[in-house]
Amino acid sequence: MSQKEDQHYIDAIINGDTRAFSVLVERYKHMVFTLAAKVLKNHEEAEEVAQDVFIKAYTALASFKGESKFSTWLYKIAYYRSLDYLKKHKRTVNTGSIDSDTEYHLTSMEDALDGLEDKERKQTIKAAINELPHDDAVVITLHYFEELSLKEIADIMNIEPNTVKVRLFRSRKRLAVLLKNKLEPEILANYGRK
């Protein structure tokens, strides 16, 4: 949905049509939940935070100035509500580190992924993304699945676009290592059967 269509519903809500908010909830509920799940790594907690995000968005809707897309504003609320949830429950954020000297063999990974069926490939990628530190999972999800720009991700995470670019690069490397580790045993097992 375009920013103009979102603004139509926002204006309707501000003018008293509370039912119009259900359209926005329906449109963005999956991504809000997914973003919370990437940070919290827990389905039930992500559902709780997602509900809280929509309550917060509804009560703060009049403060939405339209300087960014509504989805960016909403995802930013989701991201920070998820971080607040972690702090409230005294859990730490999993940030992970990367050894820049490690070599990653992306070509062989792509070949391995090409050999998997489409459904199995998606499940393997999702499982690997879920094992990433939350910032990495969020950056990859927003960029590749939600197709947000580096600037939009920077707005959501309150960091510079260049920092997003670096995180995206590092996140892809981490994801490549996870996928390689998941796929190599399976490839070797299949090779042994032939």
Biggest beta-sheet profile: none
- Count all strands and give the number: 0
Number of domains: 2
CATH architecture type of the largest domain: Orthogonal Bundle
- Which value, in Å, is the CA radius of gyration? 19 Å
Roughly how many Å apart are the termini? 49 Å
The string of secondary-structure elements, in order, is HHHHHHHHH
**Helix/strand structural class:** mainly alpha
Gross morphology: globular
CATH topology-level fold name of the largest domain? Arc Repressor Mutant, subunit A
Q: Tally the helices: what do you get? A: 9
Which characteristics define this entry?
Rna Polymerase Sigma Factor, Chain: A, Arc Repressor Mutant, subunit A, 0% strand, 2 domains, 194 residues, 9 helices, globular, mainly alpha
Brief sketch in words of this structure:
The chain folds into two domains: 3-88, RNA polymerase sigma factor, region 2, helix turn helix motif (Rna Polymerase Sigma Factor, Chain: A, Orthogonal Bundle); 106-193, Arc Repressor Mutant, subunit A (Orthogonal Bundle). 75% of the residues lie in helices and 0% in strands.
Please explain how this structure is put together.
By secondary structure, the chain is mainly alpha-helical. The protein has 2 domains: 3-88, Rna Polymerase Sigma Factor, Chain: A, CATH 1.10.1740; 106-193, Arc Repressor Mutant, subunit A, CATH 1.10.10.10. It has helices spanning 3-14, 21-40, 43-60, 70-88, 106-114, 118-131, 134-145, 150-157, 161-193. The model is unreliable at 94-108 (pLDDT under 50).
